[in-house]
Amino acid sequence: MPTALNPDQRRALADRVRFYHELGIYDFYRREDNVARTESVPVEAAAQVATSFQPELREEMSPRKSAVLAKPVDESIFEVLKTKPEQSVTDPMAALRLIREDLGDCTRCKLHQQGRKQIVFGVGNPRADLMFVGEGPGADEDMQGEPFVGRAGQLLNNMIKAMGLRREEVYIANVVKCRPPGNRTPERDECDTCSPFLMRQIAVIKPKVIVALGAVAAKNLLAINAPMAELRGRFYDFMPSGARSSDPNWQGAKLAVTYHPAFLLRDPRQKGEAWKDLQMVMKYLGLKPPAKETV
Ligand code: SF4
């Protein structure tokens, strides 16, 4: 029987799996025989699992694309490694539909029983070069089943327009797909449970640039805990963890961080800063603003 890991252990191991993915290693094999089984695994043990392959990795930045993870490991950790249904199709629209079907009437985290009206999956061009990711649906989004449709959505539309694009040309999604009650910030376990579906959406869409809207989205996508002032103003290389694109030529996206439109509504003085972030993205994508260069 697999040993259940506590949340810290799961995170340590999941971080390790992400690390392997960033190295381009996707195939894992379980070694049954050389790790003593224990009833519970201390965090140090999970870290040991995580670090014990460093020499192998150092030696072989070679084309080998597999690694060995020792037991004991919670089976659910390997969820991220299973072949996903969307990998069998090449049409991104069909692939997104398969992800939505896989999500189903999701009850995977507690947000399903905290008043959501519907799941807000994501909207836009399945072949978008530019993708926006927010933290979670609000009341309007929950009502309409589409991300960023309230006042913050209007401002996001204006931001997109100022970049010389139409809303239909980009893709918009959130880290969590169900409305947190009272618009509270989604909790860590909710983000951890829901974000694999976002990662799969990203792997299908293969955007050139992702703009994380606000600190929650940025921290979840980048797994960095830093204030907005430090997160903004630069590009990050981003590969969706735990999700493999069907296109082996896709080398990941550039990720930029800017303020959430809801924050900009509360503090319009920061719009100029947000515009700087968007200009950085426009420059990378070769976009020209239509006329007036302000958000
Ligand atoms: S937030 Fe995501 S994981 Fe949680 S119930 Fe909704 S769809 Fe499922």
Provide a descriptive summary of the structure in words.
By secondary structure, the chain is α/β, with parallel strands linked by helices. Helix content is 38%, strand content 12%. It has helices at residues 7-22, 43-51, 54-59, 92-103, 139-144, 151-162, 188-205, 215-222, 228-231, 261-266, 271-285, and strands at residues 27-31, 66-70, 123-124, 130-134, 171-174, 209-213, 236-238, 253-258. It has a 6-stranded mixed β-sheet, with helices on both faces. It has a two-stranded parallel ribbon with strand order 1-2. The longest helix is centred in the middle third of the chain and has 18 residues, at 188-205. The N and C termini lie far apart (56 Å). Bound molecules: iron/sulfur cluster (SF4). The site of iron/sulfur cluster has 14 residues, from helix 7. Iron/sulfur cluster binds at residues 103, 106-109, 111-112, 119, 176-178, 190, 193-194.
Bound molecules: iron/sulfur cluster
Low-confidence stretches: 31-73
Total number of strands: 8
Structural class given helices, strands, pairing? alpha/beta
Q: Per DSSP, what share of the residues sits in E-state strands of 2 or more residues?
A: 5-15%
Count every helix, treating DSSP H or I runs of 4 or more residues as helices: 11
